[in-house]
Amino acid sequence: MNVFNPNNLRNKQRFPVAIAVGLVTSIVCAYIIGAIVTGTGWYLSILYLGAGWAIGSAIRYCGRGVDIKFSILSVVCFVICVFLADFFSWMNAFGFFSLSYLSFSIQDTLRSLTDFANMGVIRTLMIAYAGYISYYTAKII
């Protein structure tokens, strides 16, 4: 039977490393999602499940955290990933980089997450579940 010693594990935590790795992973996942959305023309919400798992796993592996702050960091990085994915899809669609797309993409993402017509409910539920996956996988214990 494996018994974890939380005090010993707390001494080995690396929160600054987890912050850096979480942000880099969320940017990479957002760019991949944005490229797939632009390339296929379809908005695939299932991609966020993989992004949530990747962000949580990267924070768990590199941060070695046992505290709740690692899970909260993972959810914050996942939310950044959701907004940046829409931004990168707009940026790839128009072919050039402009920060003016950022405010529009944030408004568009918030509007589509609160729109419960058609597929908005399924999209919102999948993104919420992906956030839960990110929260759950970020800690060791």
From TrEMBL:
<keyword id="KW-1133">Transmembrane helix</keyword>
<feature type="transmembrane region" description="Helical">
    <location>
        <begin position="15"/>
        <end position="36"/>
    </location>
</feature>
<feature type="transmembrane region" description="Helical">
    <location>
        <begin position="70"/>
        <end position="96"/>
    </location>
</feature>
<feature type="transmembrane region" description="Helical">
    <location>
        <begin position="42"/>
        <end position="63"/>
    </location>
</feature>
<keyword id="KW-0812">Transmembrane</keyword>
<feature type="transmembrane region" description="Helical">
    <location>
        <begin position="116"/>
        <end position="138"/>
    </location>
</feature>
<protein>
    <submittedName>
        <fullName>Uncharacterized protein</fullName>
    </submittedName>
</protein>
<keyword id="KW-0472">Membrane</keyword>
